[in-house]
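Reopening this one. Same input as before:
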Amino acid sequence: MKRFLAAVIAVCFVASAMAQSFSLKGEQRVGFRVNWDEATIEGYTAQSIVEHERDWEVDQPVLVGKFLAKYNERLGVKLPAIVNNDVNYTIELRPIHVSGKGDMTCYAIVVDRNGNEVARMDNFRAEGGHFGSLLNLIGDGMKSAGKQVAKRVQKKWL
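Same output, byte for byte:
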């Protein structure tokens, strides 16, 4: 039993050390994209929200822009995020649940050029807004998510 417990602790330490060994130092920029596949948006799936919100597809670049504005405002020139595939690493935001007020539960992963996950930011909550359409409220949630992701990137990987 003692050996088993020691082995479990050793595996935890190794996994922790590997997770902390990832760094974005030296990178000039990082890519960004949103993956809505796992999301439920006020009870709708990512596929069915298009029927409910006619501007969903049109407003996607606006939502991404709101995230990037807050992210880049927080990190400045240290590590700007862009919508571009010509980067070594890409932050992929994955919303899980979006409420009617735009509050979002999401997680983010960092993938390398080959699409392999190299780091993860587990579940966090981004606060939406109070007034406006659903897409405006989700935009407020995206701003909050951008700020939180930037804080985590700065704290863990820069």
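So the earlier flakiness isn't reproducible anymore. For the record, The chain is about 40% helix and 25% strand.
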